[in-house]
Amino acid sequence: MYSSYVKRNNARITNNVCDKVVKLAENETEQVVENFRRRNQTLGLNKNSPVKLQMDGTYQRVHIKSRHKMGQNASQAIGIACENETDNHDIIGFHLVNKLCWVGAWLRGKGYDVECPNHEYCTANTNIYDPLSEKDLGYEIGKKMAKLDLLVDYCTTDGDAKSVQGLQEAMQEIFDPLWSVNRLADTIHRGQSQFREVLRAKI
Q1: pTM (predicted TM-score)
Q2: Where is the Mutator-like transposase domain (predicted)?
C-alpha cells in the first residue's frame, strides 16, 4: 500500500517538474531569439532578418535498422536546431518524437482496448507503427520557429538528412509559398565522403 502511494506521488511530482522544465526551455528559447533580434539591430540589419541554422536528428539506438525485426530499431527521435550566426550556437528549436507510453502498455496488459497517443496520460506523441523521419522533425521545428516569427534561409545538415525539406515546407506553409531554405553541407560529413571517394579511386 505504502509502495503504491510512493509511486503515485513520485509520478505526480515528476509530471509537475517536467511541465516546469518545458516552460523553462521555451522561455529560454524566446530569450535567445530576442537577443538575436537585438544583435541584428546593433549590426544595422532588420531585426526580423532570416536566420542561418545547423540542424541534426538522433535516435535512442545506435543502429536504426535491425536484423531481428521488421521496421525501425528505435522508438524515440529528437531533432535539434542551433543558430549558426554566433559563436554560441544557441539552441532555438527542438522536437522530440516518442512512441513509448508506460500507461498505454499497462492498460493493454489489463485487457483495455487503448491506442497511443489517443488516451489520457499518454506520453507518446506518435503511433508505434509510424516511421521516425528527420523530415518530420524538420517540419515540426519549422512550425515552432514560425511561432517566434523566425524565417530560415540557410541550414547546415549532413548529406542524408531530409530535415531541410521539412523545414522548408513549414516555412512555405506559414510564411510564403515561394520561400526557399538552402541546404549547406556539413564539413565533417563532406570531408568523410571525399576521403571515401579517394580510397575508391583507381590511380
Answers
A1: 0.79
A2: 12-201
